[in-house]
Amino acid sequence: MATIFSRIVSGEIPSYKVAEDDRFFAFLDINPLTKGHTLVIPKVEVDYLFDLDTETLAGLTLFAQRVAKAIEKVVPCKRIGVAVLGLEVPHAHIHLVPLNKETDIDFRKPKLKLTQEEFTDLARQIAAEFK
């Protein structure tokens, strides 16, 4: 059975896409820690990040770097934090979280609530900066 992330890539489940190429996909987390919190995934469905083949893992990292640079142009922050948890969805993924303080990347804290319009606008702005 396809993971929720594979279903997002296929368009079966809607998302706030910020970047895509033939191998990777990035979309806003709908339960963000901070504004601009983005998930970056390979399109290939592999459960654990470090089970990806070397070429895919390296490509995912480079793709995530490009996404992070786009986020930085849109969301005021000091840095983009990176987290790999991977326990909630069995599909390798990287969290990119805009940071102004270290506690911004605490997954135990309450999630932000954004409107559909805020998500759509933010995704559009980040996508426009993705190079």
Describe this entry's structure for a reader.
By secondary structure, the chain is α+β, with helices and mostly antiparallel strands. The chain has one domain: HIT family, subunit A (2-Layer Sandwich). Helices cover 31% and strands 19% of the residues. The protein has helices at residues 4-9, 54-74, 116-129, and strands spanning 17-20, 24-28, 38-42, 79-83, 94-99. It has a 5-stranded antiparallel β-sheet.
Task: List descriptors.
globular, single chain, HIT family, subunit A, 131 residues, alpha+beta, 31% helix, 5 strands, 3 helices, five-stranded antiparallel β-sheet
The name CATH uses for the topology is HIT family, subunit A
Quickly count the helices. 3
Class by SSE composition: alpha+beta
Number of strands: 5
**What's the story with the biggest beta sheet?**
5 strands, antiparallel
N to C succession of SSEs:
HEEEHEEH
Oligomeric nature of the chains: single chain
CATH top level assignment:
Alpha Beta
Q: Mind telling me the C-alpha Rg?
A: 14 Å
The share of residues in extended strands comes to: 15-25%
Strand order in the largest sheet: 1-2-3-5-4
CATH architecture: 2-Layer Sandwich
Give the total of domains.
1
* The CATH homology group name: HIT-like
